[in-house]
Protein 1
Amino acid sequence: MIQQKIKIKKNSLDVKHLENNHLSIQFSLGGFSFCVLDRENNTFIALNDYDFVEPNNSPQRLIANISSIFGNDELLKQHYNSVSVTHINDLFTLVPKPLFNEDRLQDYVSFNTKVYPQDYLVFDELKNMDIVSVFIPFVNINNFLIDQFSHFEYKHNSTVLIENLLAIYKYSLVPKVFAHMANGHFELIVIANKKLQFYNTFKFSTKEDFIYYVLFTAEQLKLNPEKFEFLFLGSIEKTDDIFAMAYKYIRNVSLLENRSKYSFDEAFSETDKRTYYSILNQY
């Protein structure tokens, strides 16, 4: 079953004339979202987010859900100047560029997940970094999107988060630890000494699971919870139990502030900008 989680739209938006705008799409086994950027004014003017209530445990169910959304959402029936796509899954690994060999993609990902001979692997070279993200995309969804838009660029969610956070916080004087919260999982990113020190995805079900992964990672990296700055982004509020748990064990905890290079229509709240950080910074 599909549930629309949020619908944001500029009041005066003419949905029939979006051909000069950019469309960003993001999806995982648990949901699908997209946003529209007015390229002329560098302003986000629409965002829709859908949850898949039943887990998509097969490519067929995932494509059925996304196809249904395209059949019913008016914004997805329009023509756009450009389209970009983000795949969210844990079928990836990060490789130092000096060690990267394009002929060994399957070997890299097999360290973290089961890889089958028929799996199609691709990679992103992260901007201004000696890092390559190797991943298995949802090929059936890419094929579906080709039928809809003819051409689009796609990347892994790890690329979006690392590039954007490092671009802003690379020269921070204190280590920064980021938790990008989603439904049932979170990405943990550590930036210190002008470099990415750590990136991984963790599945969790309780606040105790969450803080264990955070503190264990900090211990392995020899980071002092009294000194590093911990920032939440994604689906999180100060009133959430997860925030309170982090604050119990870490001295400096806060919500990520919006530092986007783009503007936002007044329909977007500060919470929206933080919740949908990855898709709003995809393009």
Protein 2
Amino acid sequence: MGTSKSRGSVRIGVDVGSSLTKLAFRGGSGAVRYELLGRGAYDQVVETVQKLQPQVLGLTGGGAAQLASRLDGRAVQVNEFTAWGTGANHLLSRRQKTDTYLLVSLGTGTSVMLVDHQDVRRLGGTALGGGTILGLGAALLQQSSFADTCALAAQGSRDSVDLLVRDIYSDPDRPLQGDLTAASFGRMARQDNSPPREDMAAAIMRLVGENVTLIAGGHARHLGLDRLVFGGSTLRNNPALQAVLTEVSSLLGLKAYFLTNGEFAGALGALASAPETEVTP
């Protein structure tokens, strides 16, 4: 798993999620590299720590306590939302940089956080997220691969699955924009034939992306903020979901930004937030 480095010169941050384990490494040169592992990759992380003997070892995420117990007190646990805010601040490009913004973390579920300089506060969230996409992909598409569901969605259109406002109001003087969603998956009960799998996948992304943005956008409007910053492993190689988030943000009068390497924000924040530790074999 990691490459050999000077012992003690490496800093490691680990975000132990319910679906994936994300690692950030910073060497003596200051360069950062990332590694993505599957769920419950405790043995691999412990092996890497023993090999590299990091100067800093920060853990965050739902599985941080369990991993820490395997490391005999050699790691520092960092609050998940603090880690995410700190990591996002590091990942924001110069063009995206701002002191105060809403950070939307799309993991298994979704959290919405207010980042105000170095202060990070969770405002709310939703159970909709990557876990929803994975579960509905398995239930509706017999598709167990998250990546394959994302690829299908990129080729489909939700119009044959969702009921739109124009399907209810045929009058051009309808009270709402015609291509807005009236009911997610609402067409399914009105047609005899099942829609293409690609369209079903696209509708899953629309269900998640639209509702996540509406929830985050409500917080933004309440606080007088004009931008949403998105990150998280659910966005990895998922252009269909990114397109939905961008479109709905625009409809709400908000700007959508996407963190490069945003799935590693928590790991990077854990690395940056943890104090130096003495890690011994």
Protein 3
Amino acid sequence: MHLGHQHMLRRLKDEANARSLPTALLTFEPHPREFFTRSNPPARLSTLRDKLNILQASGLVDYVFVFRFNQRFASMSAQDFIQDVLVRDLKTRYLLIGDDFQFGAARKGNFELLSACPDFVTEAMPSVLVQGERASSTLVRERLAAGDLAAANALLGCSYQISGKVMHGQKLGRTIGFPTVNVHLPHLKPALQGVFVVEVDTPYGRKGGVASLGVNPTVSSSSDYKLEAHLFDFAGDLYGQRVTVHFLKKLRDEERYDNLPALVAQIERDAASAHTYLTSLQREQA
């Protein structure tokens, strides 16, 4: 949820309080772009679970309505969406949309069509600029893909994060002195790839570490993406537990090495770099 979303939800909350109405958010699962580009979907920034947890933590939304985006929904006309979903199902009285919002079959619905509906008031939220650029999910994806975590996190107002359940892996890390937490990734394409300095929220508290997000080309021939984090000064059992990985800084792109000793030597350098960064961060925050 980037800063544009956060400003929008605060505005919605203010309007709801003034009208003595609850706040509600309508979202789709899967994302419409995933539905229409199944062979090459855009990178998913967050899971539905993460999205709901973030919204709950914000305290700005009373209800979230998740609509299954399927062929029937994709074929719904803009006018039917207004009458069947907004008026009949949600009983909308005030609607706040983004300034580029389009909806309905062939994306024919827009602000003008919504404004013509007498059942509710419609307003469009102006764009929110962050460092001179319009805050948007597309821009967050671009910054993450480029490895520019500082810019991505500025757009988000916090560190980018991925949460998931800890799964059993190949257990290669423990044999080379770097046991890892293997986090299940529910989506095929992550928004970022490489080796990163991270902090991981666990049932035992937040732990610093170094993480790899990619296909592990040196030790695996699979094209499946994997998120593996080595936690510093930690030896607990996290299997089956949910953890949240916060990405703080990208160290490098993923690489293929000729042999295991070369990979281990690079992991040692990555861990040292991550230690140095986390130590400097702790000093700044002290």
Protein 4
Amino acid sequence: MQEKRLLYKMIFDVGSSNYTFIHNSNISGSNLSDVNSIVLSHWHYDHTGGLYKVLEQIKDEVQIICHEFAKSERFFRRSDEIKITSLLGKTRLEIFPLLSTSKIVNQKPINMKKIEDLNGNIVFNKKSYELLNINGFRIIVAGEIPRIHHIEDFKTFCLLQDDVIKNDSILDDKCIILEYEDKAILLTGCCHSGIMNTLDYIKSLTDKPISHLIGGFHMANASNQRIKKTIEYLMTFQKYKNPLYLFPIHCSGEKFLHELIRANSPDLKPFNASVGTVFTF
């Protein structure tokens, strides 16, 4: 039997500032000290809040791959009284009263000095990025994902750019492709770009059929029409002899998982994954 050896170790998102990722890593016995790369799917606090604490666990210099939007302050609505359109075009000073009353909350930009002090090496990428290519196996980080399917559009987030509040399309939303000789596995963070947009884009990065789709699908608040169209797309977007295995977690929503199961398609095999699930390919 051929002895197994570690080729590469990466972390895809680091959880929120409550350090749940560190806690779960410790419980599972995962060693973080020899991590090669950290990939951040997008600069939202529930995916990046544990970054500095994770870096403290890593002994050598570690590569951090993210988008330049990590350098922008972001804002999240926490009151139904506030409409995103009422914030656009204003300065930070003008919206400060809303911040002080927590009607909106903010996420600070990435702290470059702290990253440097913790031995992190940041790579800002807009285009796809190949992390590993060895023995027929590739790890590819997506670049900016084109928005083609308008049903997946949204206008619910904003960020500060050029000292003005602007609509945030979350162009930093990215995914990871694990490409084998005969298939590819897709890992998503939140999939703010939309599942259909993401899978269309992935076709430009790999010619292998997608066998597994794992992660957040951002369908928790999707309309019935969008859910229906997405499921139809998943059943037809590729020709592959095996079914597509789906593991919608995080922001995917129970309704979407329920509708996937109810579709009862031989081309789709949805599962309800949980913390601690281990995948072996």
